[in-house]
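Fold sample X.
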Amino acid sequence: MFDYEPVSIPIDAAHPDGVAMLMRVPAPDDHNTALGLERFLLWEEQQLADQLYGYNKTEFVCGRLALRTACRRLGANVGPILRTERGAPALPLELTGSIAHRRGWVLAVVDWARNGTLGVDVESLPPSAAIAEHVLAPEEIEELAGRGEQERERAVLVRFAIKEALYKALDPHARRYLNFDEVIVLEESADVYRISLRLPPSEAQRYRPIGFAQWWGEWIFASARVQLELDLPALQKSDRTPDSQA
């Protein structure tokens, strides 16, 4: 389907200013291709990659290459993309980005941080048989009641993927792991999902999360964006004057 080169995919509905790049990851036994891709890392990234082994190293390499390509498409030239102390890609303050891996593919998304922090996840059908009981909150179970088996499987996987994406988007602010039952994902319109946070009011009121999901056959691409309450006036102002943004 794709060669070993990041390919742009459309995400306009979710992040109009953002860029997403999908990249195929070489098979575990394709050592020559994996070594060839490593040559495109910056020196500092190579030092970080050398701390990993096997397929984890190959996924790291492809994730960095895809994310750097996304940054370039966005119009941002970045240096080495290392890791934050929380394990996320370390980008300049004006950028927000996320990486996800699944079954031989890596997806990287980047956007301007003024639009809120981003998280992304990729999953594929069929979902694990036990996923619903671990992922769904009572409100979500009620919303999905009465749906056919196939429709329910897809709906459960969407909610799982959006929650995984949200954890990445929220982590720079909350700086802690969230349980699945602390996040409620309810369908709002086509590809757009309303997210409620079951957190202490003083914490929950700080965040304005929203989720997005797009299907490609058996694959689901999910993303989440989190804006801080204090950032909303600035975001609204910047939206009125896009030409002033660099």
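Fold sample Y, listed below.
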Amino acid sequence: MSKENIRNIAIIAHVDHGKTTLVDGLLQQSGTFSDHQVLEDRVMDSGDLEKERGITITSKNTAINYEEIKINIVDTPGHADFGGEVERSLNLVDGVLLLVDSSEGPLPQTRFVLKKALEKRLPVVLVINKIDKPDARIDEVVQETYDLFIDLDANDEQIEFPIIYTNAKDGIAMHNIGDDSLNLDPLFKLIVEYFEGPDTSDNGTTQFLITNLAYDPYVGQIAIGRLDSGVLDISKQYSLCTEDEIVNNLKFSALYTFKGLEKNKVDTLESGDIIAVAGIENINIGDTISDNENPEPLNRISIDQPTVSMFFNVNNSPFAGREGKFVTSRNLIERLEKEVLSNVSLHVSKTDKTDVFEVKGRGELQMAVLIETMRREGYEFMASRPEVITKEIDGSIHEPVENVYIDIPEEFVGTVTKNLSIRKGKMTSLVNNGFGRATLEFEIPSRGLIGFRNQFLTETRGSGIMNTLFDSYKEWFGDIPQRTSGVLVADRDGKVTTYASLAMVDRGVLFVTPGTMVYKGMIVGERNNEGDLVVNITKEKKLTNHRASGSDDTVPLRPAQLMSLDQCLEFISDDEYVEVTPESIRLRKSNLDVKT
């Protein structure tokens, strides 16, 4: 039986197509916030990293009311590295809004999330956003979206999707370009009329699948998901169906329903709604809460397996413990195990060394976000170079292969094609749209992309756009050349001097500025030749009582290249680490005992 008082929808889109801005407008115009409340921009991107990077990293949900109908809205990440969040989000909803930029059209991450939605046979509404852009090409974008649906094997019902046009920044939606709409009311009505309510009943067996976890210092662990069937009552006992066993006679300490961005405490919860419960410990994503007497668990959430692994080591550098708050192996493994509880696409395992842990995930971006989050929380550790996870199929080694989508000025096509070919990339498409830019598609092993992004940005002078999407596992492609240049390595502890830095001008590019403290074995720059070079970066000028005319003239020092965490992870080789602390990011050799 369909519940007509509830709609559960997800908004899926490529990075920076206006998804979170549209949610802001829906919240504002639904009356969820009172007139005197100031609505923060991109209110659904609540994390610092999300605001800084301008992307959605974790899936979140909010709820609004429109004409007595509750609309639960799930804001999903647009990047394939956070696909675990996407897959969980789609388990909560009965339809999706596909948001597409009126100029850029459907881009790679749109393809990834849409593919997941179509596989679940979810109905789709196409939202063409940013219709006020001067370079909008609405008709072409609509046709490109139809082509994408056909390419993804959409069924006849899915491909007959309705289209609505929006300017999310101004809070306007319209069925046809040129309509005199002044608000998002056409979109609200389309959501209510096109999407059906959840097919469920309050009289059935209670089944609540856990799709997300949160923590509250007052009530402890909070489980979030959709109540697929039955009701939950604060006064009754229920069972927890885990992967290995069924635990009976459990009671809740609190039940919550969502309104806006807040959780409202209630005594009962109805089926079909997206809810949260507290009071049950040792609960995991994928578990089911069901009837106490006759429990019926739902199918556990299926998540794509990791394709990249890294090793997290306890920091053992000479500067260890100076800047971090959590520095021991116990601190490190506890934090990683806590992350796994709420991030199902991450796997953590111990190694034969007590101070080294292997972390497996979806991609370099996901790993970089985890490392940066831990760094800001006060953790200090070392991270190795990302490596791809291989599989043995029919007696031969297979490795992950990705599709790469590139948008660059046409004068860089030759250079980019050459470098991707060296990394075993195979071009599958080349389109020159006649506006001075070309769109390229490649099929390339994931190994070939590690460390390529920095080189790509340098070669295209910052004007290139590159997106990747996991394709499949294919037979091992053979050796792939990685970084060809060596590094400059400090030969002693001390402080970087301007005098020594000047001597490095013709030897490479420095990563450190004068006054920086370094230690033996720390990487201080990139050499402009093959092989590593051990240097004395702390050398001081010997002072005398004599002066020579012109010898003390000011000599300009080339600025140091200060790299971000993402750039450091891409730069290092197999025998190097990124040392991460709350205050610093350093590069070092795995063996600090370098030979001078």
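Sample Y note: The chain has 14 helices and 35 strands.
Also: The CA atoms of residues 427 and 442 lie 4 Å apart.
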